[in-house]
Write a structure and sequence with these properties.
This protein has 346 residues and is an alpha/beta fold. The chain has two domains: 224 residues, P-loop containing nucleotide triphosphate hydrolases (Rossmann fold), CATH 3.40.50; 65 residues, Winged helix-like DNA-binding domain superfamily/Winged helix DNA-binding domain (Arc Repressor Mutant, subunit A). 29% of the residues lie in helices and 19% in strands. The strands form three sheets. The chain has a nine-stranded mixed β-sheet. Strands 1-2 form a two-stranded antiparallel sheet. The chain has a two-stranded antiparallel ribbon with strand order 12-13. A hairpin with a 2-residue loop joins strand 10 and strand 11. Helix 1 packs across helix 2. The longest helix has 18 residues. The protein is globular.
């Protein structure tokens, strides 16, 4: 009788591979993953900063050391080649580098369709020829004509990229958009499309914007993650580059938005009322905490409850800041919630 190999847990080896970094704390050595965020959150600037760092062996964002220098292969599907060059030159100027000396190879094809076997073979051949340490594809939506909400379609594309990574031992960064109004959800859950995209990544990075403040969060399959690293986009002459904020220069933002702010951020991204069940998914929050905060918000008139669910009053773009008492967190003012307000029925 044939059996699968089995070993007693206490006898398993403890000398397995440890986390190896391509860029310390940001990206694993042979990791695939998503660099995500809503539009205008500087995702492409961060991708280009990673490209410059890996090609030069210098720290990403002047802070995170690169452990393996190598060629970078980059496909910009949205930005013009002139814009890409100007941005790269700005990042190099900030880091004191000469762009001409860096092995950053830009794919200049007008389109790349990774749902087509012919284009997959072209990318395979290009990777085999240039042997990049890092491949950056920006953004995912321009690389296919699949239904991103269909897990079976998305899984095929991601499987191709995983096979590419394993065949050629490189890291792959795919830039991808978060859904509108996704700031209130956990970063990975805010990505547009199938949850396959979130689960696929060995290393994921998420850019967010709150007012003028940019933040970066990291997520790794086998290493600690970091939340809300403050960044700023600096301009020197005509050069733009991302940089870590000093505490004195950046807006002060807490490690997590308050419960009330998360609810209002979620509602602000919608044009229709939502039920408690829908809002709980958007906020990634326990029902009890959500209902407690909703009751308070409704009592204060910050959130309105109707027959179809909860919504913000019209004309309030940021209703929490001017109306909530300082330090509000859920049901934090000592009042007992009105239990009739919160229900899944509306």
């Amino acid at each position: 009788m044939n059996l699968l190999p089995v070993q007693r847990a206490a006898e398993l080896s403890i000398d397995g591979p440890q986390t190896e970094w391509l860029i310390d704390e940001l990206w694993g050595e042979d990791a695939v993953g998503i660099l995500g965020g809503e539009p205008k959150c500087c995702k492409s600037f961060l991708a280009l900063d990673m490209a410059v760092s890996v090609a030069s062996g210098t720290p990403c964002l002047r802070q995170f050391p690169v452990r393996r220098k190598g060629t970078v292969l980059f496909f910009p599907a949205e930005d013009s080649l002139a814009v890409v060059r100007r941005r790269l030159e700005g990042i190099c100027a900030s880091a004191g580098l000469d762009l001409a000396a860096l092995a950053i190879e830009v794919i200049t094809a007008p389109a790349l369709r990774l749902d087509l076997e012919s284009d997959r073979q072209l990318l395979r051949n290009t990777v085999e020829t240039f042997k990049p340490r890092l491949l950056i594809l920006d953004p995912l939506i321009r690389l296919h004509r699949l239904d991103e909400n269909d897990a079976s379609q998305v899984a095929g594309l991601l499987s191709f990229l995983r096979k590419l990574q394993r065949s050629f031992h490189l890291a792959i960064v795919v830039v991808h958009h978060a859904r509108k109004g996704g700031n209130s959800a956990r970063p990975g859950q805010a990505l547009r499309g199938s949850s396959e995209l979130h689960g696929w990544g060995d290393s994921n990075l998420y850019m967010r914007r709150r007012g003028q403040q940019l933040t970066l969060s990291t997520e790794h399959r086998a290493a600690p993650s970091r939340d809300h690293i403050p960044l700023e986009l600096l301009q020197q002459a005509e050069a733009l580059s991302l940089s870590l904020c000093s505490p004195d220069d950046c807006e002060q933002t807490g490690p997590n938005p308050s419960t009330a702010q998360r609810i209002c951020d979620a509602l602000a991204g919608l044009d229709h009322p939502v039920t408690v069940a829908e809002l709980r998914k958007l906020c990634a929050m326990r029902t009890a905490s959500l209902c407690s905060a909703l009751n308070e918000l409704c009592e204060q008139g910050i959130v309105l409850k109707g027959s179809e669910g909860y919504r913000l009053p019209s004309g309030h773009s940021d209703p929490v800041s001017p109306l909530l008492p300082i330090g509000f967190e859920g049901n934090g003012n000592g009042k007992q919630p009105a239990t009739t307000l919160c229900s899944d029925g509306g």
